[in-house]
Amino acid sequence: MARRDDTGSQHPLMPALPHGASARSTPLNKAASSPRIRTGSPTTRHGPKTVAGQSLGDSFNLKGSPPWSPRESTYDLPATRNFHNKLPPLDEMDLFVSQSPNNLLSLLPEMTESIRQLVVHYPEVYMAVWEKLRAVLEEAETRDRLHGRNVELPTPPTCATKPDIHINIHGDGKIDSYNWLKDRENPEVLKYIEDENQYAIAALSHTEPLQKLLYNEFVSRLDANEESARVTLADGWSYYSKSQVGLEYRLHCRSIIHDNGSEEKHAYMDENEVAQSPEYRDSTYFRVGFLRHSPDCRILAYGVDGLGNEQFTAFFKDVETGELLDDRLCNIYENLEFSSCGRFVYYLTLVPETDRAYRLYRHELGTPVERDQLLYEEKDEMFCLTMTKSGDGKFIMVNSAAQVTSETLFLHANTDENDTQLRVIMPRKEGVTYSAESHNGKHFFVLTNENSKNNWLFRTPAPKRDSPPVDLISLRETVIPHREFVLIEDFQVRRRHLVVFERSNCHQNVRVIELASVGDVDSERRPEAPPCSIGLEPGPFDKYHYISFSETVYSLLPESINEEVSNLSKMALFGTNVLRFTYSSLVQPKQVIDYNMDTRESIAAYDISDYKQLRLFSTGIDGTAVPMSIVFRKDLFHQGGKGLDANPCLLYTYGAYGSCTDPVFSTQRLSLLDRGFVYAIAHVRGGSDMGMGWYEEGKLGKKPNTFLDFISCAEYLIKEGYTSPEKLAIYGRSAGGLVIGAVVNMRPDLFKTALTEVPFVDAVNTMLDSSIPWTTFEWEEWGNPEDPEIYRVMKHYCPYTNVRPQKYPNMLVLGGMNDPRVAFFEPLKWVAKLRSCWPPRSTPTRSLQREDNDGDSSAGPGNDDRMLLLRIEEVGHGGSSGQYSYLEDLAFEYAFLISTLQAPVFKIDKEESDHGEPMTPSSIRHRKGLFTRELLEMGDEQEEDKMDNESVYRQSISCDSCMNGDEGIGVQPSAARQSLQQLQLRQNSMLRYKEFKEGEGSKPARIYSRRRSTTLLEFSEKGTKQNGKPAPPSQGPRSHSKLGEWIANFF
């Protein structure tokens, strides 16, 4: 029964709790005006009672006599030790405070008065009181340090302004004070990059222990025995690749089961060995971009990028002997194919100035490169070549594509040196794109958008090699007509099945059509149906079924995300009834599934998860429903929180080129979800998540729809209580970085933090400069700003053009010096201009400024409490290539998000949330008590985790040129010293690889990571139980390929 005080009135500080109900969050400004909870009679003369029945003095563990006697003190003791405690009973306070930090704040004044009276009436306990209070104050100071509050930052770098006055084609006079930063050979530019890199590391130096903690979490989720799906080729061997503990790159293997049941395994290529070869030992970047096997499986061709600029050198290796052939193809594109006989190799070369693939060559193995035959040249600078081999192995398919127009040419793969004539399936037509696949060498299936938005599928005969030219379009027949609300994204052809990947209402579907009744496609051709007709497909293509999935939010990728396995599966599975695809969702790890199209059974199992995913819809400014995919951990989600009490949230988008942002699983993302984050994907216009009409509404002059959709999604998450402006971070890379740059100009008040990688932010200047690689290719996506209307729209949203003095969010911007798609100077110029509008950070002295109801400081409109950081490193568009260096970079980015959003430093284990109490973000922050000092001490310890014989450990190393004595993450060296440091790390990497090989089966070897920081982190002992691997660099121009787009969504 609730007690009453002397007056019989209810207690003025706490609202009444109905019987059986829990208290909800009480706003601070309303707490005092809600007198509901009753209190009892005055406390006893021994002070307020605790729940355990001990007095407050007893709870301080006072033993023995006080440190001084009353007569030794000049303090005047009160005549009586009785004092009136106005606080309610502690058991009632426990329930009230547990609901919200605002409830605790409402009680602090009375708590302070009670403590004051305690010390006044019982002065002998003052040291015990101080001891308890000091621990709380120390915790507050430690948390401030970890989250960057009240931390004195070094002086931000300043960039010299050198006004460049230019009058553009529209007569606008433009003054670009940072145009001089485009010169990568200028020592001043390199010095400014160095200063920015050093400042970024110094500004986040307080998070180094957190970075180490995150890195260890990432590594603990790597699967030491992770293997790709296996593909059995014509030689009887099953080919696959696997990761290696402690090593950056993959090992490629094959195995075979002999008649006696024994299994023979053979490693035919080790990427780590290639990385340490004389060719690449001293390079600062390394990535194996493609692997191709000859038809007889004796020759392996692989391409290596040693700079990050996506130009490859192709090597040829004898799989049986392990010897490298003398043939070598330099500065080629990533597409390479063998002829059917294995005697010839087809490859693409690049225009040196723009890196556009424009020439198709044929090389005969064993002959000089100078004798290679030029088969085709694309002279239109708007078009770029790609190449592949058809799934049935009959044709070499060459696609020449601009943004909205394409053309496919073909050449018989079983050819000789005299067959050099390429034929066209469907002549190029402005605004028409299509892709083609061969079926048994007798028909082409073609997917096109001709006279439609969402694509339709037709079939046409494939001419024989010696047949005269024929108009294939006149012979085509409709397989699947156009449908208004169903987008056909892709398709695959098997001997007896046609597999169609569709998308409708932001969901992916897989249709499997049986081709057995077509009689090996030799039956009579049926009349062509109108391409825009709607209805059931007549004839032999109407026997089909859809694959069903148990989840409503998921993602599918045809084949495997492993490039080599995907390429091998394409031809190896052609004659089978097996469909191989990769399945994932926001809560399900990626799985390669083999689906039997006859029995309709799949080899896969879905596990129950502690995480929940939802599909939400926000309402755009024009009334359009914009879909979102979100995921969070069930026990840590608290809807309806305000200000700092809300869940931290990371909102991601891309929104360009018609690329779909599919909801996929990421093991690294668990480190955010386990800290109470909500992860959200905004499927904004500009992608094709809702069909090609969705894409067209977010390109060219309608591009602002993309930014307005993103803002609407952010507003929806805040309005519905999923997060708050103080807890909302946003992220986008490449073209998605344009979205981030635009919205922080338009609505900086919505976001606390912004993270962007290789952002395309100087749209006006880049699109007006045709000398920059890919610019003319991009005009069909963004528009040519020489058009007055396009220029007007672009000038309105261009992030660089619209930078102005205002309170921006915390910002971390990442770029790559060797990026061929988004030049390094775009993020560099952008940050330089932002910094000129960025007020200096306030003094670290704690101020007594008022805070509003949302917890945001009311100091003024400046950015005095916000960080602006930039890092530009010697990488390409995809960032670091090694699996461990990638994780180290990601730990830096996550630490920035966690610190600036004031999210929990430690992840919350499941058992800690299973105690029956509400798990609000604030309660999470305080659940662990005084623990953060332990985290700070982590960075000062030299740890060595003992592992079993199958594991290895890593030790911190430092370079002779940049020794700083730091442990843990360490401080990033300057850009000017990076090259020397990276060369030394590469030499250490050679030692690492040798020690690893020598240490196999004997003792743990020292493992050094290919990275750019001065020290390395050790492995977590729990090591390698879960699945996960880093994202490879994306492919193609600034727009993603389907494979690169889907892989990018994993991370």
UniProtKB/TrEMBL annotation:
UniProt GO MF annotations: serine-type endopeptidase activity
Entry keyword set: Hydrolase, Protease, Serine protease
Compositionally skewed regions (Polar residues) per UniProt: 23-32
Organism of this sequence: Entomortierella chlamydospora
Domain Peptidase S9 prolyl oligopeptidase catalytic: 665-902
Region (Disordered): 1-80, 840-864, 1001-1043
Record's protein name: Prolyl endopeptidase-like
Signal peptide: none
Family per record: Belongs to the peptidase S9A family.
Keyword Phosphoprotein: no
Residue span, Peptidase S9A N-terminal domain: 163-602
One GO biological process term: proteolysis
Chain's role: Serine peptidase whose precise substrate specificity remains unclear. Does not cleave peptides after a arginine or lysine residue. Regulates trans-Golgi network morphology and sorting by regulating the membrane binding of the AP-1 complex. May play a role in the regulation of synaptic vesicle exocytosis.
Tree of life domain: Eukaryota
